[in-house]
Design goal:
The chain is built from 14 helices and 11 strands. The chain has helices spanning 20-24, 35-40, 42-45, 65-76, 92-104, 118-124, 162-179, 181-195, 199-219, 234-243, 250-267, 273-286, 298-307, 335-349, and strands spanning 2-3, 10-14, 29-34, 53-56, 85-90, 110-115, 129-134, 137-144, 149-152, 316-321, 327-333. The strands form 3 sheets. The chain has a 7-stranded mixed sheet with strand order 1-2-9-6-5-3-4. Strands 7-8 form a two-stranded antiparallel sheet. α4 (65-76) crosses α5 (92-104) and α6 packs parallel to α9. The site of zinc ion has 5 residues, from α11.
Length: 353
Amino acid sequence: MIIKSKFKDYEVVITQTDSFIQNISSPLAFYVIDKIVYELYPSLFKHISPEALYLLDATEINKTIDTALDICEKITDIPAKRNTLLISCGGGIVQDVTGFVANIMYRGIKWIFIPTTLLAAADSCIGGKTSLNYKKFKNLLGTFYPPDIIYIYPKFFDTLTPYDYTSGLGEVVKFNVMTGLNGLVNMEQNLEKLLNKDKITIQNFLETSLQFKKYFIEIDEFDKGQRILLNFAHTFGHAFEVTSQYHIPHGSAVAIGMLVANHIAVLRNLLSKEIALRIESLVKGIVILELKKEWFNLDEIIIVIRKDKKQTSTALTAILLNSQFDLAVFNDIKPEEIALSVENIIQNVLNLK
Ligand SMILES: NC(=O)c1ccc[n+]([C@@H]2O[C@H](COP(=O)([O-])OP(=O)(O)OC[C@H]3O[C@@H](n4cnc5c(N)ncnc54)[C@H](O)[C@@H]3O)[C@@H](O)[C@H]2O)c1
Ligand SMILES: [Zn+2]
């Protein structure tokens, strides 16, 4: 799959070849690798010398400018400099940090991204966004800087914890719901197979998710127009990540965010209860982590939403779905509506007492 970009067109390659990392290695390469992945797959990385390697402890707390600068510092020690090829291997956190580094280092060096989580492979690897957390704000700092090429090696998903794997499914469910009734039905019919990590099913959903995202990022690469629709469920999802102090991973937070958006849409008579319930049942199937009520502090949620970078005025903005599966931006969302819907979701859907 080729993604058209103002920077350069770039390709997504799905590979099953165990030696693919070795095959792309170069004397100019500098590697940033997720520490857990490096330990789980020693044979894939044995050719890498310690001077050309940075192991990243992939936590939201480390997704900062300090970590980015630490990597820059290490790159300045290697001889390649401007010709450095940054090879980044990990999930969305490693991607966000390395994309940022590749962009600012010598005003932009080449980089290759190898997603190792379902979320990164099915969603974040394309689109070119780089993001860092700043103080209490999720993804506040960032740029656009797509990789030169992306290699997806689905075997990486075998070792994901159920918690991280199902977080990735959160974004996959979101994409499918956004595509319309067929997407919803497709998801309902295949959820069990996806939960059982059926290889062919995963690959099909990977491709359709990326294909769906490709449409939006190609028409609006810099997020000035239609791409904002991809933010469906994220206004609330980002808030839950922050108010749970990142105990709720990104994709799971987005899945719960979708329930809140849908509840508001039902109250506004935009979305039928029947569709909302079908989506709810999918989300319940994939949010497996034990949620705590204190992660959903209503006052804090509203404060965080107000500070979200997508909010441009005093009224709150969110994207809502209707019964025809059209998405639209609403700039008149009231804090009371959000509070009511979050309350309903945590009590009646997630059963948090
Ligand atoms: N840039 C974008 O467009 C974009 C889009 C969506 C999400 N994001 C960001 O992505 C981040 C979430 O990324 P994520 O869900 O990919 O996970 P992650 O990078 O947070 O990794 C989750 C955990 O899985 C581990 N891990 C990674 N690959 C593994 C493997 N193959 N086997 C076992 N463990 C593995 C990591 O070490 C980590 O502990 C969030 O910070 C989110 O904001 C960015
Ligand atoms: Zn997301």
